[in-house]
Each structure stands twice: as C-alpha cells, then as structure tokens.
C-alpha cells in the first residue's frame, strides 16, 4: 500500500472523486450530447422522414398503458370468478354474495325440504 504524505495537495478522496467524475463523463457523454442536440432544435431536412415522438411517462405510452390495463382486468376478472366458485360452498359466501346475483339465487338455494328433514 502506498502512503500519501499529508503535505500532498490531493487526498485519496479527491482523487477518487476525480476518477468517478471522469468515468461518468465518459459513460454519459454521448447521451448528454444527444439531449443537447435535440433540445437545441437540430436541423431537419424537409425531404427526410416525418416522425414524432409519442407522449410517454417513463416510457409508458397511452396505447401500452391501455393494453396493460386490459390484460390486468382480464386476469382480475378471472381470479375473481375463480375465487367465487372456489369459495362458493362456504355458506357465508353463498348467502351474502352469490345468492344476491340474478339467476343464482334459486340455483344456490340449499334449503332442505321439510319431508327430508329428520328433525
């Protein structure tokens, strides 16, 4: 390990920060240049392709958000239907939820006929 005397104008911390800044400049230089060129209103040829960048929030456009929403809704509905039929034999679920739906009230009625009741 090399010892740096206290008289040295640069400490290890300063050298480390300088190296970090150099590495970050090298990594992000192209991105910074591209962002500066776009914000400065770079020249667009009238004969070139006409393109626009769609509005987005962190890379999520309105159309992809709609697609993801539809997929999530389909999974949610299927999970809800599964849960209702899975817990359909629980008396509380059958009475409080399923019998309140139209066409299911008579289908899910589990009353015992008086002639079949042994008591």
TrEMBL record:
Q: Where is the signal peptide?
A: 1-29
Membrane-crossing ranges are: 66-87
Q: Which organism is it from?
A: Aspergillus ochraceoroseus IBT 24754
Q: Which GO terms describe its cellular component?
A: mitochondrion
Instruction: List the Pfam families hit by this protein, alphabetically.
Output: QCR10
* Ribonucleoprotein as UniProt keyword: no
**Gene Ontology terms describing biological process:** mitochondrial electron transport, ubiquinol to cytochrome c
UniProt keyword terms in alphabetical order: Membrane, Signal, Transmembrane, Transmembrane helix
- The keyword Repressor is assigned to this record: no
- Lineage, opening ranks: Eukaryota, Fungi, Dikarya, Ascomycota, Pezizomycotina
- Protein name as annotated: Uncharacterized protein
């Amino acid at each position: 390990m090399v010892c740096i005397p206290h008289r040295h104008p640069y400490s290890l911390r300063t050298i480390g920060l300088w190296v970090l800044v150099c590495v970050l400049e090298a990594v992000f230089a192209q991105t910074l240049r591209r962002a500066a060129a776009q914000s400065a209103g770079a020249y667009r040829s009238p004969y070139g392709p006409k393109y626009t960048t769609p509005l987005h929030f962190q890379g999520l456009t309105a159309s992809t958000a709609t697609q993801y929403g539809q997929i999530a809704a389909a999974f949610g509905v299927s999970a809800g239907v599964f849960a209702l039929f899975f817990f359909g034999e629980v008396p509380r679920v059958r009475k409080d939820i399923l019998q309140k739906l139209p066409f299911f009230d008579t289908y899910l009625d589990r009353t015992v006929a008086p002639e079949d009741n042994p008591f």
